[in-house]
Amino acid sequence: MSNLRVCVCSLILIGVLGFQAAIGLAVFNYGEALDKTFMFFEAQRSGKLPLDQRGKWRGDSGLKDGSLQSVDLEGGYYDAGDHVKFGLPMAFSVTMLAWGTIEHRKEITNLNQMGHTLWAIRWGTDYFLKAHTQPNVLWAQVGDGSSDHYCWERAEDMTTPRTAYKLDHDHPGSDLAGETAAALAAAAIAFKPYNASYSDLLLVHAKQLFSFADMYKGLYDDSIQCAKQFYTSSGYSDELLWAATWLFRATGEENYLKYVVDNAVYMGGTGWAVKEFSWDNKYAGVQILLSKVLMEQKGGAYTSTLKQYQAKADYFVCACLQKNDGYNVHLTPGGLMYVREWNNMQYASAAAFLLAVYSDYLSAADAKLTCPDGQIQPHEVLNFAKSQADYILGKNPKSMSYLVGYGPKYPIHVHHRGASIASISVLPSLVSCVQGFEAWYRRPEADPNVLYGALVGGPDRNDNFNDDRSDYEQTEPTLSGTAPLVGLFSKLESLFGNIGPYHKQPTTNQPTQSYHHQQKSVPSTTSSGVPVELLHSITKTWNVGSTTYYRHKVTIKNTSQKPITDLKLQIEDLSGTLWGLSPTPVKNTYDLPQWLTVLKPGSECSFVYVQGGPQAKVSVLSYH
């Protein structure tokens, strides 16, 4: 690797029917970011950890959860920087993981990440199966936020009460039971190609939980009062529609589609026009999922109601893109969607994922989005989603990555108990409740354990960020914030990846699938005696209408024993836009990027372009 210098490049996707304007790229490695998000989920695991746990600073914890109530509730995920297992955000997070997997199965498989993806989902769904002990009983929470927050201690040292709380017919929770049903239904789709029997089991529980949620209506935090100050539910109608929609997608059974149509007005599905998608508010997700049914012309007798759902989906997307006649989502000066003061990044990441999904749905249907302020092409929706991902990864006024462990600058004082206290493998003695505050919480040094992949709460409405462990609004990560990034990063990596310095190697046995990333390499034109090899690869193809488009990667290699400077390339027959080289005033002539002045012996650089038809002609004009 000492002789290999990789030019981190990206591309601009243009010139495509339905993709008429450019999608600009910043230099971010979405594949690396994706891998780190899985590491965050591993760090949040409760229970007996597997041998292949990558975050070795973690140990087993919560092994007796549920024992006081004679039920096995080992497993699942800790919610954020604390050790409560809150059912509502955990279930939403699993739904998001599964949805990202469903939409981007091919991309995730190609990245050798399907093993990690399914593990992340199953760590949650196995817990939900344990928690669903009877058709109308769901254990909804383990731990009490108030007592838990009085202590600053590692999960392995927990001394706080591990009381478990359940929902049943006398203590309903349609929101939480509905979200858990949605998570299991979505996970059933994700697992179907790999483990059909497990998929079937998930569906059995999903159907039972939906029936329970619909039959015994009520807010979960009315039944579990101690959850109210941490995850207050604004209602349960959206979760009932959400669960029914996912069950329709998982089963194809018309009664679930009929449910969302019959209850469209009563439950607000066609009434609520929202500017938020989150663990608490699922309306935008429901509306976009049902828009897919409509655009695929599968609405049948329900078409007129599905059009009303789509109108509200369009409202959400137009509001995000600032095209909604003034009724828009607020943007910070740096361009980040800003919804709420506490942990705003979770709203930005969830919305960005939703926009990327809707962009795909529109493209597949050869449709456009009509907003009050103009018509929007699908690629513009994707471009905005990408802008949120890029902000997260460092394209922001602070030049800081808000994904811990990614990039040269990221938060180092994360509001997270386990990250901020020395690992139990390094400090095996007990760190008590109060000792944690005195010795670790207030220390100015960086966290001893890097919480890779944690999306922190992020900056305020003016892009200001305080990297302070005590500022939980800005530095605490959550499951629900990180989960949507799996689908978002997978999508972006599929379009703009394979050109950075990060190359993920398989670390687990990956499920196989009959999809192969197309890649062929041919030499481009070079003059005899020129010590530069140009290797031209097609790394991606797709169709829009009757036209096939190609993503081209050109690798430039210095084959001599001497450094090369002032390399100039001529690129002819280029109909798309190129990224990774610097254009010169001379037509069709390009220099290497300004930051790369010397191509060392044996080193490589690459650039990318996208276009339909034949590849461009690349040749060396001059060099020193």
Verbal overview:
This protein has 624 residues and is α+β, with helices and mostly antiparallel strands. Helices cover 36% and strands 13% of the residues. It is built from 19 helices and 18 strands. The chain has helices spanning 30-43, 87-103, 105-110, 114-131, 145-149, 174-191, 196-215, 220-223, 237-251, 254-262, 283-295, 303-320, 345-364, 378-393, 417-420, 433-441, 472-475, 479-482, 484-496; strands spanning 85-86, 138-142, 164-167, 330-331, 337-338, 369-371, 374-376, 520-523, 532-544, 547-558, 564-565, 568-572, 578-579, 582-583, 589-591, 598-599, 604-612, 617-622. The chain has a five-stranded antiparallel sheet, with no helix packed on it. Strand 4 (330-331) and strand 5 (337-338) form a beta hairpin. Helix 9 (237-251) packs antiparallel against helix 10, helix 9 (237-251) packs parallel to helix 11 and helix 11 runs parallel beside helix 13. Residues 1-26 and 498-527 have low confidence and may be disordered.
Mean pLDDT: 88
Coarse morphology: globular
Low-confidence runs (pLDDT<50, min 5 residues)?
1-26, 498-527
Q: How widely separated are the two ends?
A: 24 Å
Strand order of the largest sheet: 8-9-10-17-13
> How many DSSP-defined strands?
18
> Count of helices?
19
Main sheet record: 5 strands, antiparallel
Strand content: 5-15%
Helix/strand class: alpha+beta
Compute the CA-based radius of gyration: 25 Å
Query: What proportion of the residues is helical, as a percent range?
Result: 25-40%
